[in-house]
């Protein structure tokens, strides 16, 4: 099974740090960095607005525990967004590429 993992970051430098680490460690096949989002959220009783960068992380479900651990180790937020969504369908060539990209010997 494949996952799309969402994670917001405070800026591009953190997003690039996390994205590079996940791909280099073969915990993700691909990480898209989407700058320029605005998040509205409740934190410690207050409604907050903040500029953030969204990561779209493509991986396999068996990699998720280590991926979550890696994000938490690099992320500056006390409670980072780490949400995994099952990929129900996808182009077989792309899904095969994800599998090949995550293999230890590739």
TrEMBL record:
InterPro entries per record: Ion_tolerance_CutA, N-reg_PII-like_a/b, N-reg_PII/ATP_PRibTrfase_C
An annotated GO BP: response to metal ion
* Any GO molecular function: copper ion binding
Domain of life, source organism: Bacteria
Family per UniProt?
Belongs to the CutA family.
Q: Per its record, how is this protein called by name?
A: Divalent-cation tolerance protein CutA
The organism of origin for this protein: Thalassomonas actiniarum
